[in-house]
Amino acid sequence: MKPREKKKTRLRKQKAEEHKKVLEERAKSWDPKSNPKATKDAYKTLFVARLSYDVDEEDLREEFERYGDVRDVKLVRNIHDGKSRGYAFIEFESSQDLKEAFKYADGKSIKGRRILVDVERGRTVPGWKPRKLGKVVPPKLGLDFTLKNSLFFVLEYSIVKIKYTLTILSINCPALL
After folding, report:
1. Residue 162: which residues within 8 A CB-CB, separation 6 or more?
2. CA separation, residue 5 to residues 1, 36, 41, 59 (Å)
3. Local structure of 94: helix, strand or coil
4. CA angle at 89 for the pair 85 and 95, rounded to the nearest 5°
5. Nearest residue to 47 (alpha-carbon basis) of 137, 147, 124, 109
6. Which among 146, 141, 102 has a CA at the least distance from the CA of 121?
7. Helix-, strand-, coil-residue percentages of the chain, each rounded to 5
8. Residue 27: what are its φ and ψ, rounded to 5°?
9. What is the CA radius of gyration of the chain?
10. Paired residues of 171 in beta bridges
11. Would you say 54 and 157 are in contact if contact means Cβ atoms under 8 Å apart?
12. Is 148 within 8 Å of 140 (Cβ atoms)?
């Protein structure tokens, strides 16, 4: 190995270690349940991502009121310049309205961008971490699932228990067939 390549490899490892330490520190201080800006009821809150940066709270309220009464819309913005970060949280009056929006709003286009819709996981799924904190995707354990909007699933002794609402497009598991 050339000295130049050794130096690049060493610097890359050093940078990765520093980044890992930063993520660990952020993960320690991350507590979604103590966020004063969060919606009131996490079980009636929808996470909406891949939003156009031109979308505002009124656009989201208008789009999601077709599924039911919207209690609150929280568009996440950059602290420094106030620009949209491309995702939002929408709280509904009832969980039935949330289910309707979850089922039908995913993939809809708002201001020219297809959106992604999911439930709020930070306060509802124990141990869940966002990607920005180095979320690790668990191994597949021999199962090949193609999931659309999975909420949560548990694998136990080759029996798949499905919690909440889960749309399974296909299952490829010899143990279950």
Report:
1. 153, 168
2. 6, 48, 53, 51
3. coil
4. 165
5. 124
6. 102
7. 30, 30, 40
8. -65, -35
9. 20
10. 145
11. no
12. no
Rounded Cα distance, 31 and 25, in Å: 12
Q: Which residue, chain included where needed, has tokens 């668990």?
A: 138
Pairing of strands 116-119, 45-49: antiparallel
Amino acid at 16: A
Q: Which residues of 137-160 are buried (b: 16+ CB within 10 A; e: fewer)?
A: eeeeeebebeeeeebbeeeeeeeb
pTM: 0.66
Name the nearest CA neighbour of 60 among 44, 76, 82.
Answer: 76
E strands within 94-135? 109-110, 113-114, 116-119
Q: Specify the amino acid at residue 154.
A: V
For 116, the token pair is 């992604």
Nearest-10 Cα torsion for 89, 79, 31, 37: -50
pLDDT in tens, 11-28: 999 999 998 888 888 888
The tens digit of pLDDT for each residue in 63-105 reads 999 999 999 999 999 999 999 999 999 999 999 999 999 999 9
